[in-house]
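Revision sheet: structure tokens.
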Amino acid sequence: MTLTLTLTLTLTLQWNTSTEFGAFLDPVADKLMVSTALVLLASDPPAPISGPAMVVPVLVIIGREIAMSSLREWAASSAGGAHQVGRCQLLLEARLHMQDGPFRAL
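Predicted:
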């Protein structure tokens, strides 16, 4: 997934293009992935942690994600469109993950 994200961001930066659908879908896909991982973690938590003990942190994190997404959407609607700095930051993060994956130390 990081390879396709890097390719997409590179082409977007080179051609200086963006779509409303892409601007909408990217944060939605991120939130779905994070929420899915958190719900799966809460449904089968690691050994020393009980299931009910995981519910509150998961709900807080998902609630924060929703609140921050709403705030970003509101800010984007008042300021307009995606910013070049955000694109560059995402491209840099994707390339760093490709170079030195998040689970390399494990």
